[in-house]
Design goal:
The complex is a heterodimer of chains A (112) and B (118). Chain A is mostly beta strands and 112 residues long. Chain A is 0% helix and 51% strand. Chain A has no helices and eleven strands. In chain A, strands 2, 4, 5, 6, 9, 10 and 11 form a seven-stranded mixed β-sheet that branches. In chain A, a hairpin with a 4-residue loop joins strand 9 (87-95) and strand 10. The radius of gyration of chain A is 13 Å and the shape is globular. The relative contact order of chain A is 0.33. Chain B is mainly beta and 118 residues long. In chain B, strands 2, 5, 6, 10, 11 and 12 form a six-stranded mixed β-sheet that branches. Chain B contains no helices and twelve strands. Classes of the chains: A mainly beta (112), B mainly beta (118). Chain A binds chain B through residues 4, 31, 35, 37, 40-45, 48, 56, 58-59, 90, 92, 94, 96, 99-106, and chain B through 4, 34, 36, 38, 43-48, 51, 53, 91, 93, 95, 101-111.
Chain lengths: 112, 118
């Protein structure tokens, strides 16, 4: 019973199209995060949230929006996808008391 | 800003041999950041391997250990005898302070792929 799940696991999109990546957590954590991972780079923070209704910009927010409609769900939205957004995306939930983050399995996005 | 540098690319080790993956950090948002090692097995998300929140302390898990050295700003990952099942990607990370712009933000290294050969 995975605590953080992501969908889809793989996605191929066209340039200019809209893409929505979904994340669900059953940890009941207030904090949630979206990262992307590219070869030669560590995970880089795109957006994060402190709770339902909140979204904050991370280090590389340009070209991305986020939505946190509930404690459990956190979405990443690419309104106009570009090939530079081809990457692996990880969602995580965070335990503020232990500072640990719990990650989903990742979504591989290819933008053609 | 905060940054983490770790052994680049892939490390190949024969089974039962020792391993060290280097990690050094630079923290501008906080004097003594919390330090973590995460591991990602094929097809899975990252999972916490070990953490140390106090400078000078050692963390250990599943035969791996890492010591928080504030003098050399290092947090190298070591294991005395690796197994094939240890093949994975390992990430060093630090948790910055409020000045990092987002509380509980983790800054990651680029990851080191470990391949253990039988």
């Amino acid at each position: 019973e995975a605590a953080v799940t992501q969908s889809p696991r793989n996605k191929v999109a066209v340039t200019g199209g809209k893409v929505t990546l979904s994340c669900n957590q059953t940890n009941n954590h207030n904090n949630m995060y979206w990262y992307r991972q590219d070869t030669g780079h560590g995970l880089r923070l795109i957006h994060y949230s402190y709770g339902a209704g909140s979204t904050e910009k991370g280090d590389i927010p340009d070209g991305y929006k986020a939505s946190r409609p509930s404690q459990e769900n956190f979405s990443l939205i690419l309104e106009l996808a570009t090939p530079s957004q081809t990457s692996v995306y990880f969602c995580a939930s965070g335990d503020p008391t232990s500072y640990e983050q719990y990650f989903g399995p990742g979504t591989r996005l290819t933008v053609l | 800003g905060d940054s983490v540098t770790q052994t680049e690319g892939q490390v190949t080790v024969s089974e039962s041999k020792s391993l060290i993956i280097n990690c050094t950090y630079s923290a501008t948002s906080i004097a003594y950041p919390n330090l973590f090692w995460y591991v990602r097995y094929p097809g899975e998300g990252l999972q916490l391997l070990l953490k140390v929140i106090t400078a000078g302390q050692k963390g250990s898990s599943r035969g791996f250990e890492a010591t928080y050295n504030k003098e050399t700003t290092s947090f190298h990952l070591q294991k005395a005898s690796v197994q094939e099942s240890d093949s994975a990607v390992y990430y060093c990370a630090l948790r910055g302070g409020m000045l990092s712009g987002s509380f509980n933000k983790l800054t990651f290294g680029a990851g080191t792929r470990l391949a253990v050969c039988p």
